[in-house]
Amino acid sequence: MTRTAIQLYSLRDLEEPIPSILDRIGETSFDGVEFAHRVGQTEPREIERALERTGLTPAAAHVGLEALEEDLSETVELYTQFGCDTFVVPYLDDDHFASPEAVESTATRLSEVAAALEGHGIDLHYHNHDHEFVACGDRTAMEALLERTDDAVGFEIDLGWANVGGVDPVSLLERYRDRISLVHLADAETSTGTPTELGEGDLDLEACLDAVERTNAEWGIYEHDRPTDPIRSLSDGAETLERLG
To answer: Of 240, 219, 223, which Cα lies nearest the Cα of 186?
Structure first.
């Protein structure tokens, strides 16, 4: 059974410390949390205590590629203090996917970081938006990236952004199921790329959730990039996934 979590980026506008936000999440049906932003501003022991009292599990942490290249040991030390052993590079801009040569360079950098993290017992993944699905020769840049990296680099597929990028999220889930243990459950309007609440955009949510279960992904992670009401989005996301799960 796929467990559910929420990406903390969805709650970044809450003017509360991370432990307080974790308490809010613990009152919902989410099983875990994916970290991003402000983690370094909180004592790790306080995060650990919040995870203990809420029963939430760290699904992963979004960490920039440059931080991993420049401060790998410090980053590993920070997150492992509260039991997080999976990192995700959350974004690389268009230049990294502009040509086959750019994709090759990107793949090399990700592979080198993945190899370094492996020695610390940390898994690395890459998280897509829509621009990775630009044409790159006879395939998309995302396909090229996955072909040029091995299983050491996992694929955290964002269903909403893949849909905006013009590809079928269900087909991607099935094709790369061996590389996918983390799935971002996000929705958006494809014509504008505007994020929406789950079920309010153009994503075929029920078909995607069925595919997530078939592919045995470990985590389904709710995210809303630009919620107008983060607290309401937290409860709506949890309730939608509980109802459809």
So the answer is: 223
